[in-house]
Specification:
Radius of gyration: 14 Å
Structural class: mainly alpha
Shape: elongated
Number of domains: 1
Strand content: under 5%
Largest sheet: none
Number of strands: 0
Length: about 90
């Protein structure tokens, strides 16, 4: 939570959203919920129109690597299933 605001704008940031969700659930402090929502909104904006997340589109990794796309999308689907349980 002490990272600069732009620090969440990278892959792996769903872990920051998860932490924010848990801390909000434990403490009830809206600061943590707000931070989690910022990250969640970033991730939603990064999602492609076909529903997939492509890790390499900003890193120069070839987009035709279906294994990377499948793994990343599968993991983010799982996280998006869990986030609401702790911030609603």
């Amino acid at each position: 939570m002490k990272c600069r605001d732009e620090a969440f704008a990278s892959f792996g940031c769903w872990k920051q959203a998860w932490a924010g969700c848990l801390l909000y659930n434990i403490t009830g402090e809206s600061f943590y919920k707000d931070k989690a929502i910022e990250v969640i909104e970033y991730l939603i904006g990064y999602q492609d129109d076909d529903g997939a997340w492509r890790y390499g589109k900003d890193l120069g990794i070839p987009e035709d690597d279906d294994g990377i796309v499948f793994n990343l999308t599968s993991e983010l689907v799982l996280w998006f299933h869990e986030f609401p349980k702790y911030i609603i």
